[in-house]
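Task card 7
Instruction: Convert sequence to structure tokens.
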Amino acid sequence: MDCFRGLKIIFLIITFLMRMDPAFAAGPETTMDLVPNDGTEWWVWPLALFVITFVMGILAVLGGVGGGVLYVPIISGFFPFHLDFVRGAGLLVALTGALAAGPGLLKANLASLRLAMPVALIASSCAIIGAMIGLALPTNIVQTLLGVTILGIVVIMLTAKKAEFPEVEKADALSSALRICGVYTEASTGQKIDWKIHRTPLGLSLFVIIGIMAGMFGLGAGWANVPVLNLLMGAPLKISVATSKFLLSITDTSAAWIYLNKGCVIPMMVVPSLVGIMLGSFVGVRVLKIAKPTFIRWTVIGILTFAGIKALTKGLGIELF
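Output:
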């Protein structure tokens, strides 16, 4: 059912984009103008995007990261597309995965609407601001900041700890007023977990920064959502992961509309990217059962480090590789 839901979402997005973009409907003669004029046939780029994003989809599942955080630095660093187009496609990549997973997470009582709504209101509003800032800044500055951000994510992945069930002695006044709490059943043990959160004002304040960064770089924000929800605010890890995934379907939508309205979403990039990332995710779920977590974690960290250095040097005008 998840596979069918994901493919249906991809079909709807592709149909919408084809209707919105007259260049795509016009055929390859027009779309060739959107890719580098280096003598390469126009169809080579969509095919390369499909292959790369298929692998990326597998790694995203195995590494526990969103597709956008891998997509933007890798595609912008090693493909000759303009950064604005890459960021627009990156938001739709993250959005598609969230839309596919969101209903199931809500049905399983893992994603919390009470926790998601105030966070989504702040993050989605700030994502719009971030998208406007990103489109207004010179490309080399955004590329440099992207490299710094990706390398910062690597540091977070290297140092972050995971707390399956954080200890929250007492809910703060704001979370009590908003009734942010819940009960879920841990499938592995059958135990019912009664959870609540604290440090809510500080957590919500951080989502202002997270939302701006998500919109500016087109990364999605799953890499930052989970540490704040889990380690700072005290939500159980599974609730944090599920709620973060659901949040992307709201925050990425608002930022994606800005890029779409500015003409920075071209179907020739988005279509193969969405199909590749989704099919790769389905394969990744199966591989996850037999893969060694330590190996996968270091693989993702290595890829992000390489892509972050590439984005940073490209923004600074330094050619290392």
